[in-house]
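User: Predict the full complex structure for these chains.
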Amino acid sequence: MPESASPTTAQSFVAQFGALRDTLPGAGLPWLRELREDGIARFAKLGLPGPKVEAWKYTRLRPLERIGFVPAGAAAQVDLDKLPALLPHTGVGHRVVFVNGRLRQCLALLADQPEGVELGGLADALRHDPDPLAAELGRNGNGARARDGQPLFALNTAMMQDGLVLRVRRGISVALPIEVIYVGAPGPEPVAFHPRNLIVLEPGARATVVEHHIGLGAGAYFANGGTDIRIEEGAQLHHYKIQDEGPEAIHIATTHVELARDALYDGFILSKGARLSRQEVAVQLAGEGSECHLNGAYMLRGEQHCDITTTIDHLAPRTSSREVFKGVIDDQARAVFQGRITVHRDAQQSNGHQLSKALLLSDRAEIDAKPELEIFADDVKCSHGATVGDLDRDALFYLRARGIPEAAARDILIEAFLAETINNIAAEGLCPALMSSIGHWLGGTTGRTEP
Amino acid sequence: MDSLLEIKNLHARVDGKPILKGLDLVIPTGEVHAIMGPNGSGKSTLAYVLTGRDGYEVTEGEVLYKGRDLLTLTPEQRAGEGMFLAFQYPVEIPGVPNTTFLKEALNAQRKYRGEDPLDAMEFVKLMRRKTKELGISDDLIKRQVNVGFSGGEKKRNEVLQMAILEPTLAVLDETDSGLDIDALKIVAEGVNALRAPDRSALIITHYQRLLEYIVPDRVHVLAHGRIARSGGKELAIELERTGYAAFAEAAA
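Assistant: Here is the predicted structure of the two-chain assembly.
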């Protein structure tokens, strides 16, 4: 195909949309058609984000622009039984698998599932019951509210084919985690896909969603995900994500979370894969007493680039947010942390705390940290901070003086550093899986010698 | 082999500044020696040179341990060879449980010596026995390494590590400083419990007090980077009476 020969530009995506527009899911739905047209128009106007956009100041899309991507076609050949499982089979209620953004499997692993859990793929939902989706998908206005206009979220809206749709009905508590595995399976040509996820928890509902993003093989692919989350009154969502994409993958994920009164969003992101990744999370604490925990850890080496950009808006009284991101950066890798907390005028008696900590393991590693706090209310408690350092030399010597070899001593200190963020998450049962994910990463650290 | 540690004409500097200036010291196997001296005489530098800390540069002389060159070994190799330093200022390591740390340390040393690692059960048993012997509370081992410990708790933790690792040569760097009498007794019991014909210890201290509980075979006075005087246990008592002023003048 001609696309693969030439580099990616905004125009190449617009052309792809032009070719696909009549075959995309829900093409016969006027509201969706309008939403998609609006998305592609926005994207065409904004273009691929570049250095002139403040929110993209530290992240360049060069790895994307260098390669030509074609839209992912019918699902690649993948043996679903051989996918690495993050969670033990017995600890999972549902397992959903997407390959190159398309639903391949949606299984209830236990016979006794509560009523009132609607779980499936977006393409199916658009085919069979599209009406409830209209309000949800258009809710975040193609990112128009966001500070950078979110061109890639607009592109996602235009191009979305499939994704996770989860609705938990009023008062229903889903005890076991719902595991969602997103597989990137690059073919002979680099492929692009734009999964769109939708999670709605009705009043008083509870659920835990664990996303596991993995790549098969070493080829390039572009996963441009979008997620809309709405948590209604008193509902609680635990949302944990492990980004472990293939080494040449480009992973962009834009998430919008809206919380009603006394709702809780407990989010965690572990980012360790992909050549280039960006997690953009925008949280609206819209209901009084709503609460957000947003934690994460990242581990980078080689020439990896990881961007964490978060925006938390306190819009109502007595809202609270707690955010801790910690990262370890080796070799020439680079991390970006941009965190903004805004406490709006009506959000009295709110509190917001944010912390970014990074360990640089090499002289050429880099982090750009930009914590921001904007307060327009007068009765609030807020704090933010950012630290950068290398491993504590005194601690390293202390461990070595007790007989622990240097490489192992470094691993112990790195693991302890990152563990703090994992210990912050509410679903303790998932901590071992996350810790072992850190352990695997440490096993492959470069520049070290085993005695 | 008579001497476990043999230091010959040791010169060392820190940040380019000479601290040790021709130190000679022999510790025979099975003996406990004390090094006393005024502040700034090089006591802690000696402890760090022996354990291989970065930034402590040996410019002249040699150190033989078990008859072999000690200075070419890494800190972890020295530990594996049975050397232990009780730190003057034990380091806090947030996020690492004390038990995990101790198990890693013990098994790393066992691996170095070609011994099988202890499994979780065996280790717990060993830990229980040692904490009981030393009268150290279980609480201490469940917490993160030295995090939020009082000065006394940190020193107790050093002694517990020493008891578990059973070193051939224990170096105690002012372990007695800032301790009340109960904590001091725990430290002394820890050292005395390890006294054996095949083990030695080097007690670095500013005061004679600890030596009432750990009676040394020999006492050395370190002043201006050299051993200025050596004697029996009575030397410590004499120093307590006269102070270090005589050595300050003698070397000036």
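Chain B has a mean pLDDT of 92.
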